[in-house]
Design brief:
By secondary structure, the chain is mostly helical. Among the domains are: 3-155, no CATH class; 237-288. Helices cover 72% and strands 2% of the residues. It has helices spanning 3-66, 81-88, 95-121, 126-149, 162-171, 184-195, 208-216, 234-282, 286-298; strands at residues 159-161, 198-200. The longest helix is centred in the N-terminal third of the chain and has 64 residues, at 3-66. The chain is flat.
Length: 302
C-alpha cells in the first residue's frame, strides 16, 4: 500500500467515525428531548387530572345539596392514572409535591366513601358534607401550589397577591358560590394563608383606635386589653394629688399678685376719661358755633 492510498484510507475511516459519532449524538439528543417532553406532558396531565377530579367533586357536592333524594351512585370513584404513571416512572420532579397530591386523593376518596354511607343509610348529611367541602378546599389549595409554584412549600413561595389566587380559580372554573353558604375563593385564600403562604394584603387585625393607640401611646401597656393605659397605683395617685394641690396654690397666689396692677391701671383709665369729659364741657356746642358763623357771614363790612 502506497503512502497516498494509506492517507486516503485513513481520511475515509476518520470521516466515517465522525459521521457515526454525530449520528449517535443526534439520536441521544432526540431521545432526551422526547423524554423531557414526555415528562412535561405527564406533569401537565397530573394537573389536568386533579383539576377534573376537583371540579367533579364540587359538582357532586352541589348536586347532593340541591337534590335531597340523591343516592350513593351520584359519587363517582376517584381515579388518577396520570399520578400513578408519574409515581411509577423516573421523572425528575418534586416528589414531595407528588406525595401531597396522593394524600389529597386519599382524603377525597375517604370523604366520598363517608358520603356514600350517609346517603345509603338516609342519615343527616351535614357533617359529611362539611368534611367533603373541607377536603375539596384542601385539594384546590394543593392544586394551586402545584401549578403556580411547582409544588414547593407554602412558606418558600414568597409573597403572593391574594387576587392572583382568585384570578387563578376563576380561570379554572371554580365559582365563588359553588358551595352553599360559603365563598369558595375566600376559603381557599384563607386555607393557603393557614398553610404558611405569605398572601398580601394581610387581613385587618385592629381597629383604627386600637392601631393608633398601640402605635403612638408611649405609656400603653402591651399586655392590657385594647392597649389601655396602665392603672395608676395608690402611691402614684398620692404623688399626683400633692402635685395638683401645689399647682393650685401657686395659681391662686399668682392671681392675687397680678390683681393689684390691674386695679391701678383701671383707676388711671377712669381719671383720664373724666378729664376728657371736662374738656368737652368747656367747648361750645356745635349749634351755637354754627349760628355765630352764619350771623358773621351776613354782616356787611364797615
Amino acid at each position: 500500500m502506497s503512502e497516498a492510498q494509506f492517507y486516503t484510507f485513513f481520511t475515509g475511516g476518520l470521516g466515517l467515525l465522525i459521521a457515526a459519532a454525530l449520528m449517535i449524538a443526534w439520536q441521544l439528543w432526540r431521545l432526551r428531548d422526547e423524554e423531557r417532553d414526555g415528562a412535561i406532558s405527564a406533569l401537565d396531565g397530573v394537573s389536568h387530572e386533579m383539576r377534573i377530579n376537583l371540579q367533579r367533586m364540587v359538582n357532586e357536592v352541589a348536586q347532593i345539596v340541591d337534590t335531597q333524594e340523591a343516592g350513593p351512585d351520584v359519587l363517582l370513584p376517584v381515579q388518577h392514572p396520570q399520578l400513578d404513571g408519574v409515581n411509577a416512572s423516573l421523572i425528575r420532579t418534586n416528589r414531595n409535591a407528588i406525595a401531597v397530591i396522593g394524600a389529597t386523593y386519599q382524603e377525597l376518596e375517604a370523604r366520598k366513601m363517608a358520603l356514600r354511607a350517609y346517603l345509603a343509610q338516609k342519615r343527616d348529611l351535614t357533617p359529611a358534607l362539611d368534611d367533603a367541602m373541607d377536603a375539596t378546599i384542601n385539594g384546590i389549595a394543593t392544586l394551586y401550589m402545584w401549578e403556580e409554584h411547582a409544588g414547593v412549600r407554602p412558606s418558600e413561595a414568597g409573597m403572593v397577591r391574594s387576587w392572583h389566587v382568585r384570578d387563578w380559580m376563576k380561570a379554572h372554573g371554580f365559582s365563588a358560590h359553588s358551595f352553599p353558604g360559603m365563598h369558595l375563593r375566600d376559603e381557599v385564600v384563607e386555607r393557603l394563608r393557614q398553610y404558611g403562604l405569605h398572601l398580601t394584603p394581610r387581613p385587618l387585625t385592629h381597629t383604627a383606635h386600637e392601631y393608633y393607640s398601640m402605635r403612638y401611646d408611649r405609656q400603653a401597656d402591651p399586655h392590657a386589653p385594647f392597649w389601655k393605659r396602665k392603672p395608676k397605683t395608690e402611691e402614684v395617685m398620692a404623688v399626683v394629688g400633692v402635685d395638683e394641690a401645689s399647682e393650685y396654690i401657686d395659681e391662686e397666689f399668682e392671681d392675687t399678685y397680678e390683681a393689684a396692677p390691674e386695679m391701678a391701671e383701671s383707676e388711671d383709665m377712669d381719671a383720664a376719661l373724666a378729664e376728657i369729659e371736662a374738656m368737652d364741657e368747656d367747648l361750645p356746642d356745635e349749634d351755637e358755633a354754627y349760628a355765630e358763623d352764619d350771623s358773621e357771614a351776613g354782616r356787611l363790612p364797615n
